[in-house]
Each structure stands twice: as structure tokens, then as C-alpha cells.
Design brief:
The protein has two domains: 15-67, 2-Layer Sandwich (Signal recognition particle alu RNA binding heterodimer, srp9/1), CATH 3.30.720; 71-130, no CATH class. 41% of the residues lie in helices and 18% in strands. The chain has helices at 31-36, 71-85, 87-101, 108-114, 116-130; strands at 15-21, 40-45, 51-55, 61-67. A four-stranded mixed β-sheet has the order 1-4-3-2.
């Protein structure tokens, strides 16, 4: 789901995977199986869509878990798909990532936060593009 899923986009050597479950807050339904496969639960974010983050058996894997009905899933996929099909935004995003990666960050979240304005601008274009019928420039009502 992350940068490694966008051909041509520079990315850190970390694979971000999205696992969609019936209810991410119901850890008993999926955590034991993930732990048996070598994943370890590292982050619980009950206030942010009940998001869970596991580190993979390979430390270069981040497994994100969200609930099936979570609106963030569509945003994640739409952002990825937009970057795959819009080279200008992909290049803009890559340039920003490279500039930010050259800095020293106390917390990884600070790096992520520094990308927010650009990500939101790209998301606005992606969401606007999703409302247009193929071959037109007219915006469809949401």
C-alpha cells in the first residue's frame, strides 16, 4: 500500500501491507494467527480508526490492520492508485520525500507530518478525479 507499491517511486526498503479485517479492535480474531506467522504487534491506535501496526517476521515489513468499514482504506488505495497513474504528482511526491529524508527526525511521525500538506493536495486531486466520468472534465456530484 505504500511507496513500494507505486512503480517508479523512490521508496525506503520497507514494505507496507494493509490487512483489512472485520473489526481491528477484536484482536483475538486475528492477532494469534499473525503472531504464529512471526508478526509482532507494535502499535495500537484506538483513536485513529482502531489502527494496529505489526512488524513482520522480516523487520522490513509493516503490516497495517484496519476494520473493513474504515474510510481510511479508500483514501490509502486512492492515493496509491493516483500516484501510479499521474507521473507529475508522483514526481512531486518523490521530490518532497527525498528532501525530507535528508533531514534528521527525532520521531518518524515528524517526517510523516511534514508530508501532510502535499499528501492532502494530491488526495484532493485524486478525490476530484474520482468524481469525473471518463473522458470529461465535468465534476460529478459526490
Amino acid at each position: 500500500m505504500g511507496s513500494t507499491s507505486v512503480p517508479g517511486l523512490a521508496a525506503k526498503p520497507i514494505i507496507d501491507i494493509l490487512l483489512v479485517v472485520a473489526d481491528s479492535a477484536d484482536e483475538g480474531a486475528y492477532v494469534p494467527a499473525l503472531e504464529a506467522a512471526g508478526y509482532r504487534l507494535c502499535i495500537r491506535e484506538p483513536l485513529w480508526f482502531e489502527h494496529r501496526l505489526f512488524k513482520g517476521p522480516d523487520t522490513d515489513v509493516n503490516l497495517h490492520v484496519l476494520t473493513r468499514s474504515c474510510p481510511e482504506i479508500e483514501r490509502i488505495m486512492r492515493f496509491r492508485d493516483w500516484l501510479r497513474s499521474h507521473p507529475e504528482d508522483r514526481a512531486r511526491y518523490e521530490a518532497t520525500k527525498r528532501e525530507l529524508a535528508a533531514r534528521t527526525w527525532r520521531y518518524v511521525q515528524n517526517y510523516a507530518d511534514a508530508k501532510t500538506a502535499l499528501v492532502e493536495a494530491i488526495m484532493a486531486r485524486a478525490l476530484d478525479g474520482a468524481r469525473r466520468p471518463c473522458g470529461t472534465s465535468e465534476v460529478m456530484p459526490p
